[in-house]
Amino acid sequence: MVRRRSEWPSPDELVICTVKEVFPQGAFVTLDEYGGKEGMVHISEVASGWIKNIRDHVRENQKVVCTVLDVNPERKKIDLSIRRVKENERKWKIQRAKLEQRGERLLELCAQKLGKDLDAAYGEAGFTLQEKFGDLYSALEVAARDPAEVEKEVGPEWARVLHEVAKENIEVPSFRVKGEISLTCPTPDGVEVIKSALISARNSVRNEDANLEFFYVGAPKFRIEATGRSYKSAESVMRKAAEMAIEAVTKAGGKGEFRAG
């Protein structure tokens, strides 16, 4: 798996794991992205509801996506959950892991162009790019469209070759997420309150990485569609806009509810 400077994951982080051992009260897993460090998934975190046979849900050598609940480096203890990972999060993590592996291969290609090896590439640029942009592939996406942004982190030599390699090998993607928001406002100007709340929310969250639109479905429902250069940026914009619209309508005496989907 791709190297990381940090030896331990962070709480709430999504990680890819391999099930090492299954027992009646849970499962021990190894964290693929963190040098095979071991963590535990308690049976209550394996799946929702009552579990009659844990092996109906997990088995040895199975690859699973977990969310990190707690990390204690001193005790070398990592608590994880499988059931708290939503299906869209699981798919996103698997996709990003594949892209991150490709990102490492491209980083190695950059290193070769500079007469360096992969160890040097990580030391001089890779770890810094991970910390700034989240992962190597995301950093290369930025390098493809805005090398100046990368140059601020790793200098002109690396920025130049990263831009060259990224332009040749990466097509900057567009991710789309959808949701539904219900808004009602019983005041005389309720229709205008809702309209104003939606417009304000849409305009407030638009940025370079994501765009958002509302579509009328039928009272009191509206569909939200957000597009972005990453799943996370699109989802973040969608949720933030929904929260802003609901807050504005609630302050005016109405109410609202958001549902991702």
What does this protein structure show overall?
The structure is a single chain. The protein has 261 residues and is an alpha+beta fold. It folds into three domains: 14-84, Nucleic acid-binding proteins (OB fold (Dihydrolipoamide Acetyltransferase, E2P), Beta Barrel), CATH 2.40.50.140; 88-169, Translation initiation factor 2, subunit 1, domain 2 (DNA polymerase, domain 1, Orthogonal Bundle); 175-260, Alpha-Beta Plaits (2-Layer Sandwich), CATH 3.30.70. Helix content is 43%, strand content 27%. It is built from six helices and nine strands. Helix 1 crosses helix 2 (118-133), helix 2 crosses helix 4 (147-169) and helix 5 (190-205) runs antiparallel to helix 6. It is flat. It starts with 13 loop residues before the first strand and ends with a strand.
